[in-house]
Amino acid sequence: MSAPLACLDHAAFHVRDIAFHIAFFRDVLGMTVTKLDGDPDDPKQAWLLGGIQLIRDAEFTGPEGRFGHLGIICQDLPATIAAAEAYGAVATAKGPHWLLLPDGLLLELMAQKGDAVRIIRSVDPRA
């Protein structure tokens, strides 16, 4: 059996000062905001072009715990969930597509739109 295909959509991180991080990624790396959650002047979360999700957490004192989760786009979501469960992943209270791996890594699995996984995996950014 071949493994279901998937690709990384985003990596989520907890940050104390979300405005600073939005400005940093925009000004230094050209990663503009694609989506905000909450007040645009003080959002709870921000998603940036390039695969970064920022989660405002004023109480964060890190560095441990800064990582939130990996968001992964799946070509066949039900098959990917089943394959992950066979490896011991368990669904969380957020839903069956939020899976916690045995070592604590949290995954958010999402269904692709169109032929996104094949298109993204066909690009080698280091080529």
UniProtKB/TrEMBL annotation:
Residue stretches making up the VOC domain: 7-127
CDD domains: VOC
Domain of life from the UniProt record: Bacteria
Alphabetized InterPro entries for the sequence: Glyas_Bleomycin-R_OHBP_Dase, VOC_core
Protein known as: VOC family protein
Source species: Gemmobacter fulvus
